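Same chain as my last thread, 328 residues:
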Amino acid sequence: MTMADTPTPTASETPVPVQPSERGAWLLACVIACVGVAVLVAVLTGLVGRTSSAPAAHPPAVPVAAVTPKPGASAAASVLAGAGVGAAAVGRDARARVGPVSGATAIVGSPSRLEQSVDARRFVDQTQTHIFTRWMEGFYPIYAVAQRTFGVNWLLLASIHRQESAFSTAPGVYHGLNFAGCCGGPMQFNVTNGPVSTWQLVSDSYIYGRRPAHYDHMTATHPSIYDDFDSIMAAAHLLSADGAEYALDGAAWDAAYDYYGHDATGVSYADEVLARAIGWSQHGFCINCGVEPALIEAVDAAYGAPVLAALTTATTARAPRAPVRPKR
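reply #2:
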């Protein structure tokens, strides 16, 4: 049969195009969706997106359960004598190799009048900040090393961390200085007072403890007020040098008072810091729990009120007296 003899297909015999299957496209879309959901779940649960690959950490063990303080002659004497007590030797593991960091006098924070006028409100705002559990896990190993190295109750250290920077969540913690242009970092160390600043006195404290392999905000050079480990270790050293130990008592109150400064704001600061730490020791570490007002009142009655009364007396004694007019 020649090509000329080949029959031409009619319209009814012409092949109809078959629509390609969409099964592959739908399968690819389902795979992409499943991967997206898995990534989202991992991010929300903290499995990815963290700077540390370490497993979830837990708060260190509480060394002692503190009792609620009661006012009395012995409590008042302990805090009133604190200002005259020299810097204590540092904690248990470092006691043999680290001496007092400031000779015979306590290291006292010296906030300016501008700081004092703003801090009362600043502390209230920061203690109302909500902190996520996963954020805190990077600090637990550091607290544990600081407690073991310098013999300071980690709850006191954590309470100051909360008071100063809301566990490092306050704006500007990891760059620059605060509103007063003097202090910076998680523990708000003063780098401008001196001639030897508070930070310079304790900046090498990190060398006495083993740095965790992983934690957030690890700086390239050390020491740095912006490095979590460097800053928290320095704060623990400072508290220990000012007399704090494991007990949450008058010595711990004195150390917190020294950490801020010897003024009325410092009294309120120490009252709240110690009350928070005592509450944690009694009920367990609670990141976002408030401080019980009754506990603050108890701490103030035992430790804060006697010191505030002494401050008021000293201020009155220093006030210039009006000249006495001679009698006519």
